[in-house]
Amino acid sequence: MNNLNPKIRAHLLGGLLLTYIAACSGGQPYDYQPTAGEMKQGPGAFSGESGELTVYDSKKGGLFPKQGEAQKSGASAADSQQSAQPGAAAAAAAGVTAETAQADQEARVTPEEAEEFQEFQQWKKEKEQFHEYQQWKKSNLDSNEYKEFKAYQEWKKTSKSSADFKEFQEWKEFKAYQQWKKSQGQ
Amino acid sequence: MKTRLKLGLIVLILAAAMLVLGPAAYAVDFKISGQINRAVLWADNGDSDDLLFVDNDNSSTRFRFTGSNDFDYNITMGITWEVEMQSNPSNVVDIGDNDDTGDVTFDERKIEWWMSTNFGKIYLGQGSTASDGTAEVDLSGTDVITYSSISDMAGGITFRDKDDSSIKLAAVGDVSSNFDGLSRRDRIRYDTPTWGGFNAAGSYLNGQSWDLAARFARQWDGFGKLAAAIGYTGADTQRFPYKQVDGSVSWLHGSGLNLTFSAGQRYDREGDADDSTSIYGKVGFKRGIHAVSLDYGKTDDLDENGDKFQTVALGYVISPWESIEFYGAYRWHALERDDIDDPDDISAVMIGGRVKF
Questions:
Q1: Is 0.80 surpassed by the pTM of this model?
Q2: Which of chain A's residues have a Cβ under 8 Å away from the Cβ of B261?
Q3: Would you tell me which CATH number, out of the four given (2.40.160.10, 2.40.70.10, 2.30.120.10, 1.10.3720.10), belongs to the domain B2-356?
Q4: Do B197 and A4 touch (CB under 8 A)?
Q5: Measured between alpha carbons, how far is A14 from A16 in angstroms, rounded to an integer?
Q6: ipTM of the shown complex
Q7: Which residues of B310-320 are buried (b: 16+ CB within 10 A; e: fewer)?
């Protein structure tokens, strides 16, 4: 390192100093992804918002989803329709799924069915929470609590790959599992 | 050497053991993505000029497969297989190349698996070495057409002898470099977790070569984003008979104003070669779908002792849709070489588009 050209050394040290000052002056870390020379980030012309064509995703299905995932995708599509036409349709669909769940309880519950039921319960719970949130949003747009919530949403966006966020997802799954177990009477 | 080999083997065995002993996997995904980046390049070497249809090597045409698999204990395993396919790469073609350059083949970029844990991330296979990209941090939004790797735009265009233009002195790519680490190689790489925006990385590759790097990225409400990196290749080995240090920093203000700076040096070279140095600076402005920048670069003593290469470019990028960018740039190149009349300057204009699919 002693052989470094004085100019280059000065520039590199300047950069290091700037970085050090920046690190000491607050702010938040963010996930910088190199762009120079790399593939374009963001959406794709055919792959849509994610920018990647999903061949397989165990949570969302994909181009070639397994039968179970296909059923889930169908359920998701039904959910979307319910969102578009809330009310009777949603209630009917929820009722049908609840009946199915009850039948499952009476009959032997396969892992696939249990997983499906768990997803339904989570959806139901989140739907209620979403309605609560909408009501709360209407009445609290200027409150500190709402600002805190917005800050949390920002954090959630930037932390999707962080360990915290993965832990949060795991916790959510665990809670859903507990709910399902409770409903099974165990 | 034996110690390093043992260390690498232990890491591999541990990784394999974690995979085997780990509980059932969940959250599996497998995805495909890619892009096509084609352009028209006009170049003038002072003696003649030509219009060439090229693949923009600033960010070549390619596609990739990625997949990942989450396990318990916050362990994620993944794969990346990325290949490029370039017909007439912009860093290879020269004035007078009337045919398309050779057969078009797939070139490997990344063929690797990785494992991410709470203790960092390990990569094994062909992929970015730790120092790759350390001289190329750029937040300008114009890096698809101009960034510190000058030769990507028109690196194959040659400076011609002043007296006899059929004599090719050197191509732009021979006399310019940003000394950006060790590029993509077959290696094992380790990245530490990120602490407060900082992280460090190291890799070991064939030829008893190794490199180290540190990266930083932070953002402020009123100040914008700042990203920086520094790399060191202590690769005074059978494979790379020189050492190299490089770094870059880029700042993007909330207003859209951005500044980028990069510097590097290759030293302790064999023989009596002078140390090669490089400096690059860019000022730009980015707002909405538009990004514009002006840059200056300088590389000394790379191809021959006493060489002085300079370049200036103006670049513009417009992204009318998120998946598509159109761009245009003008770049001027000049070379001063000892003991001969300086060759004529090279001018190049590139206009094209990058479509992600």
A1: no
A2: 11, 15
A3: 2.40.160.10
A4: no
A5: 5
A6: 0.79
A7: bbebbbbbebe
